[in-house]
Amino acid sequence: MQTDLFPPTPVPVVAATPPTTTGLGQYFTPAWFAEILYDAHFSHLTTRDLLWEPSAGTGACLAAVPDDVPAFGTEIDPRLARIAERRTGRKVFIGDFCTVSLPEGITAVFGNPPFELDLVERLLARCAAIMPEGSKCGLILPAYFFQTSSTVVRLNQQWTLQQEMIPRDLFNRPMQMQKNLMFGLFTRDQTPRLVGLRGYHETHAIRALDEERQRLLDESFRGPRSVWREVVANVLAELGGEAPLAAIYRVVEGKRPTGNTHWKEQIRKVAQSRHFVHVAEGVYALPKPAIVPIPA
Fold first, then answer.
1. Which pTM was predicted?
2. Which of 190, 237, 234 lies closest to 213, judged by CA?
3. 168: which of 146, 158, 223, 286 is 20 to 30 A away, CA to CA?
């Protein structure tokens, strides 16, 4: 890729006051904080990369990108696009980031999109389709974007997800931000993981069960505490309390509790946990209840 695809044009520092945004609910990223985020998550970018700022606003995220890293923006508001271009010297295309034509070779996405969950998911779907393995998309988002297990599990099919809490009083003009905020980092990954997010896959699996099974998992202190532990425990009991992994796989294959395509890995991970006994290579058993002596 050409390193001068979108070279910045030297421009004087513009300290123009951003347009009034109260009616639109827009909050522009403070320039100093955009630099903190860029340095923390995108400082590895080089002249061979291309960064896209999907909703450029007045240009803070674009301005945080060093001059030698190719970058461009898109902005649906022509007036803001002109301000961002003037303040950063970068090209800002006018249009909806979900549909506007984009150059090839995008390897990073960084920005502060509108806080509309459906719109953000559409943006992430577009990014997933065009970004290479290992590339990152970092977005300022409301904390509730990762609130439900269904959303996180759906996104985790294509992205490794990581989040950092950020202060909501970053945005106190034109009015105080009322939503709790985070910086969500989405990394294209063949084996997607969750970083700083716990219990989402388990919650999603359990909420897919009938009400009675959910109640038993919630309230049975002596029973298994997860869907897959319940499966492994039931299969081992069915096989006499002890069995090799191959036998467990054969029984589970026809009655998997979720659509997890890596179900064998999940069973192996659960069998190797502290909740079961490792008898021999690849052989596991149900634990025997510990006997607590009664005080004399």
1. 0.74
2. 234
3. 158
